[in-house]
Design goal:
This protein has 71 residues and is an all-alpha fold. It is built from 2 helices and no strands.
Length: 71
């Protein structure tokens, strides 16, 4: 899927967030299997990173679709 040119940045952020969230799930699964707390921390950090990317994508999207402000 090719996004419109003005949304390419937002699309890239969402793709990255999805990949990072998928990685977080995989790492968390490994942490549960192994019982390794450091691996669990890595999974938590990946999940937090994914949430930050989604937040940034939403802010960027809101800025792109907002009506211009009158002064």
């Amino acid at each position: 899927i090719a996004p419109p040119a003005e949304l390419e940045g937002v699309h890239a952020l969402l793709v990255s967030a999805t990949q990072l969230a998928t990685s977080a799930v995989d790492v968390r699964t490994e942490a549960v299997r192994s019982g390794d707390a450091s691996v669990a921390r890595d999974a938590s950090a990946a999940a937090a990173g994914a949430l930050m990317l989604v937040s940034r994508a939403r802010a960027d999207m809101d800025a792109l679709v907002a009506f211009p402000q009158l002064r």
